[in-house]
Write a structure and sequence with these properties.
This protein has two domains: 44-48 and 318-425, Aspartate Aminotransferase, domain 1 (Alpha-Beta Complex), CATH 3.90.1150.10; 67-314, Type I PLP-dependent aspartate aminotransferase-like (Major domain) (Aspartate Aminotransferase, domain 2, 3-Layer(aba) Sandwich). Strand 8 (218-221), helix 9 and strand 9 (240-244) form a beta-alpha-beta unit. By secondary structure, the protein is of the alpha/beta class. Strands 4-10-9-8-7-5-6 form a seven-stranded mixed beta sheet, sandwiched between helices. It has a four-stranded antiparallel beta sheet with strand order 11-12-15-14, with helices on one face. A two-stranded antiparallel sheet has the order 1-2. It has helices spanning 9-12, 27-32, 59-72, 81-100, 115-129, 149-158, 175-181, 204-212, 233-236, 261-266, 301-317, 319-338, 365-374, 387-392, 409-425, and strands at residues 40-41, 44-45, 47-48, 109-112, 136-140, 161-165, 186-192, 218-221, 240-244, 255-259, 343-345, 355-360, 377-378, 380-382, 398-402. Helices cover 39% and strands 14% of the residues. The chain is globular and about 70 Å long. Bound molecules: 4'-deoxy-4'-aminopyridoxal-5'-phosphate. 4'-deoxy-4'-aminopyridoxal-5'-phosphate binds next to helix 5.
Length: 426
């Protein structure tokens, strides 16, 4: 292939718009790399506080997407030169994701449309092979719908029973109850790494140790963890881990499933179709080796490849530095909001990162959302796909402000000023 016409991932990561060595993040400079952050909303400079839903996108990702479709587009599969190149750049990103989460091998990464699809792949594979009447699936009260409903479906269809670990009054997983609920018929534990409501970091390593001591596999939903903190799947020790690329600078529909190779190998396929089987024979399904066995049909080629430079961008900043910055910013914003009479922050006092949900006494959360929107602040209100957790915390709905390293302390001030005004006016 003509190298000048077809830049590789490695070439692109040489974009040095981001400081590598400074201890402090240069947030103003970073913000210039995210075009959406320059726009206005309702006539005011946009304050984007909805990164837990989906992140804004760096220019390097947008450029990669354009170049791919303009100059490199072909089917990902061995064959002619264009396909060989497509396969190469696609597989480079697989290796990058493996490095990002410290997987042992790239073939342990399965590309999906997001965390939801990854979680469904595992629930379907378990339903097909591991679940029956009398078996149990253990989730927690803190799960997002994406890690609850697939397991409800698997239990409904297999006759297995769904067990739910309660949370404490501050939104921590009740570890003592967790341990009690690990039973002889528990077939899998499925738990989120970071809450999409409170930003609480759950003790998934400890939970994995407790489950493994009883021979029970563990699936971790890392949708809210991967973009915000270093994740080391081998240190956690879990069997499966799901993540969302679109929450980490990637295009709108990309994510991954990680699985320990031997565990993925022993599970049956979840989806059938082209590219996942060795051959089509009506006598027997013959899946390809990992990772192809779990990637039926045309992959999200453009989305995966364009996610690559965004991963580089995050890794160049450093996940440790990102975590430290976002944790401090979340704490700062929490302090500001708690100083406003009538404001309650959910999950306060737990180890939290990047996500901040709150209520304002006497003002419905959807009204707060509307008022923030009028002031140019994009936050989210509602059930947040986590009704059971909200109920356990004593509310039906909440307002959620979620942060990324491109948010500033001034934006946290703007949020607090707006909330104070909304509280006063109601
Ligand atoms: N799990 C959690 C904890 C989430 O916050 C989300 C997204 N809000 C998901 C799963 C679903 O992720 P995706 O949108 O990538 O399917």
């Amino acid at each position: 292939m003509d190298e000048t016409l077809h830049p590789t991932e490695a070439g692109e990561s040489e974009d040095k718009t981001v400081p590598r060595d400074n201890r402090e993040l240069d947030v103003e400079r970073i913000r210039r790399d995210f075009p959406m952050l320059q726009r206005r909303m309702n006539g005011l400079p946009l304050v984007y506080l909805d990164s837990a839903a989906t992140s804004q996108k760096p220019q390097v990702m947008i450029d990669r997407m354009r170049a791919l479709y303009a100059e490199e587009y072909a089917k990902v599969e061995e064959g002619h030169s264009l396909s060989k190149h497509a396969t190469q750049v696609f597989e480079e990103v697989r290796a990058k994701v493996a490095r990002l989460i410290n997987a042992a091998e790239p073939r342990e990464i399965i590309f999906t449309r997001g965390s939801t699809e990854a979680l469904n792949l595992i629930s379907r594979a378990f339903e097909r092979s591991r679940l029956g009447p009398g078996d149990e699936v253990l989730i927690t009260m803190a799960e997002h719908a994406s890690n609850a409903i697939p397991w409800q479906m698997a239990c409904e269809d297999s006759g297995a029973t769904l067990r739910v670990v309660p949370v404490t009054a501050s939104g921590e997983i009740d570890l003592a109850r967790f341990e009690q609920l690990l039973g002889p018929r528990t077939r899998i534990v499925a738990v989120s790494h970071v809450s999409n409501v409170t930003g609480t970091v759950f003790p998934v390593k400890r939970m994995t140790e407790l489950a493994h001591a009883r021979g029970i596999p563990v699936l971790v939903d890392g949708a809210q963890a991967v973009p915000h903190m270093p994740v080391d799947v081998r240190d956690i020790g879990c069997d499966f881990y799901a993540g969302s690329g679109h929450k980490m600078g990637g295009p709108s529909s990309v994510g991954f499933l990680y699985g320990v190779a031997s565990k993925l190998e022993e599970l049956p396929v979840a989806d059938g179709g082209s590219t996942m089987a060795q051959t089509l024979s009506f006598e027997k399904i013959q899946p390809k080796p990992l990772p192809h066995k779990y990637e039926a049909g045309e992959p999200a080629f453009g989305e995966v490849v364009a996610w690559g430079p965004a991963i580089d961008y995050w890794m160049d900043l450093g996940l440790e530095r990102i975590a430290a910055y976002e944790k401090a910013l979340t704490e700062y914003a929490t302090g500001k909001l708690l100083a406003i009479p009538g404001v309650r922050v959910l999950g306060e006092g737990t180890e939290r990162i990047a996500v901040l949900s709150f209520t304002v006494e006497g003002v419905p959360p959807t009204e707060v959302e509307k008022e923030l929107d009028r002031r140019g602040i994009a936050a989210r209100a509602g059930e947040l796909d986590a009704e059971p957790l909200l109920k356990a915390l004593g509310v039906d709905m909440a307002v959620r402000a979620s942060f990324m390293f491109y948010n500033t302390h001034e934006e946290a001030d703007a949020l607090a000023e707006a909330v104070a005004e909304i509280a006063r006016l109601h």
